[in-house]
């Protein structure tokens, strides 16, 4: 089982879109996947359109037991030929878990909860901040992926997020590895976007960027508003983005296998 958390420092970069794109790629690939929505806004929960929800991420964090996890797991309406997606849904009460101030010892709960899962892939959608919920995700993850856009603030935000990943790895979760930076909503024909992408390479190195970048296409919004995986949208733009997420997922799975071999 590979646990990947997807984080960003600010809203509006398409973090949840990346989680959903990877989930769709995993479904198409035939993988069993669980999406854990730790973002109190609950956008991933809305798009995945789960059936009746009994428990949520809040109850799992409060009681990280096998019973609590099993009760919170609910099947998504997204259907694949062989793969499946289940969800641990967000709810507004998650905000109270993000009040951790560092005045007491950090005792990860999500890391205990994910041990009760038996799937191929776990994707954790973090809130757009580096608060307690993101720390919970990092403490539970094998790989951490940072989402940014090719903008002035993108490089700065990615740098701070990577620093947080290193801190959690050194203090709480020694198995955590940096999975890479996703440059989202990329317009290759725009000079400003190309410049900002080069800036990220200069700061973090070419190997730090997950390839390919995710192109900005209206198909992403169309799929999300319809509550469908991207591959269900029949357009050239959708096919382009689907191809990018397929390659990105394969890269992350390869990193996961390399990590297992090394350990």
Secondary structure topology:
Blueprint: E1 2-7, H1 15-29, E2 32-37, H2 43-48, H3 57-62, H4 66-72, E3 73-75, E4 84-88, H5 110-114, E5 121-125, H6 132-140, E6 143-148, H7 152-171, E7 177-183, H8 191-204, H9 218-226, H10 236-262
Parallel strand pairs: 1-5, 1-6, 2-4, 2-5, 6-7
Antiparallel strand pairs: 3-4
Helix pairs in contact: 1-10, 7-8
Question: If you had to describe this structure to a student in words, what would you say it looks like?
Answer:
It is a single chain. The chain contains 10 helices and 7 strands. With about 260 residues, it is an alpha/beta fold. It has one domain (about 1-95, about 105-260): 3-Layer(aba) Sandwich (Rossmann fold), CATH 3.40.50.300. Strands 3-4-2-5-1-6-7 form a 7-stranded mixed beta sheet, sandwiched between helices. The longest helix has 27 residues, at about 235-260. The mean pLDDT is about 90.
């Amino acid at each position: 089982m590979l646990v990947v958390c997807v984080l960003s420092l600010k809203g509006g970069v398409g973090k949840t879109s990346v989680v959903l794109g990877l989930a769709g790629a995993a479904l198409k690939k035939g993988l069993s996947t669980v999406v854990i929505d730790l973002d109190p806004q609950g956008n991933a929960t809305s798009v995945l359109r789960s059936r009746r929800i009994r428990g949520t991420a809040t109850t799992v964090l409060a009681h990280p037991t096998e019973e609590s996890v099993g009760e919170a797991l609910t099947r998504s309406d997204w259907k694949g030929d062989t793969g499946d997606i289940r969800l641990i849904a967000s709810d507004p009460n998650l905000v109270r878990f993000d009040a951790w101030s560092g005045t007491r010892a950090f005792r990860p709960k999500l890391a205990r909860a994910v041990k009760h899962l038996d799937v191929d892939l776990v994707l954790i959608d973090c809130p757009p901040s580096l608060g307690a919920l993101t720390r919970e995700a990092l403490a539970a993850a094998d790989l951490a992926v940072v989402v940014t856009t090719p903008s002035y603030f993108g490089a700065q935000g990615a740098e701070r997020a990577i620093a947080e990943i290193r801190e959690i790895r050194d203090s709480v979760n020694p198995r955590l590895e940096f999975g890479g930076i996703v440059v989202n909503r990329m317009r290759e024909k725009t000079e400003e976007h190309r410049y900002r992408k080069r800036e990220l390479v200069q700061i973090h190195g070419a190997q730090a960027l997950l390839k390919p970048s995710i192109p900005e296409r209206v198909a992403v919004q169309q799929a999300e508003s319809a509550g469908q995986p991207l591959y269900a949208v029949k357009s050239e733009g959708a096919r382009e983005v689907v191809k990018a997420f397929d390659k990105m997922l394969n890269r992350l799975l390869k990193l996961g296998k390399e990590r297992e071999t090394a350990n």
